[in-house]
Amino acid sequence: MPTANTLADWFATTQGQYLLAREQAFFDHSVADIFGFNALQLGLPEHEFLRTSRMPLRVMAGNEAGVQVRADVDELPFECGSLDLVLLPHVLEFNAHPHPILREAERILMPDGTLLISGFNPRSLWGLRRALGSKTGYPWNGDFIALPRLKDWLALLGFEVVAGRFACYVPPFTNPGWSNRLRFMEPAGDRWWAVCGGVYFLQAIKRVPGMRLIKPRWNEGLVGKLLPAAPKLNREVPQRTKSEPQ
Predict the structure, then answer these.
(1) CATH of the domain at 175
(2) Whole-prediction pTM value?
């Protein structure tokens, strides 16, 4: 099997197609229920993971060919708090500095904005293949990030993880025959060993602590001197005469 030079090339292989089908299904389902105006996908412009989003502005950015906005993923040309949704499909494990990418995503997301992440799970058969096999070519040359570690990073940035799931329980065979024979592992794994899927998906919300307005204690005497006195109202109620109707 030839070595894939990019992650997009690997998605065209048997292994990649197997994972891509589950990845596309997750993003299709998730982004359709997220409302707002501006959505961003970082990387993998060959695959429209925002295709079911209802947001009017959907942008692809990154340093690959085919993106709409050419930029480094850790220095994005977007204003602070300007986006409602950011997708990171396998961006973190193939970058030497994943922390600045998450900080940049937090910066450009508006309060209560949504971050969707997909990543390879090192605690799986796919992670075992990377640990014991060759690390040349995609996706085995990436630095698979453990899910608890990623959750800690998100918590430090003020994100709340609200949803997640695993997928891809079939071992990463290159032979399509063996992959087809073991398809039963997909529903079985989702039920019996859910945390051992080859890929995980996370949905996190950017939380911003609310502000409490502290009012000053007014000096009533000083306020009375500064404000003009209100005219006194005549509160006397005129007496009715016998000739007036009741």
Answers:
(1) 3.40.50.150
(2) 0.80
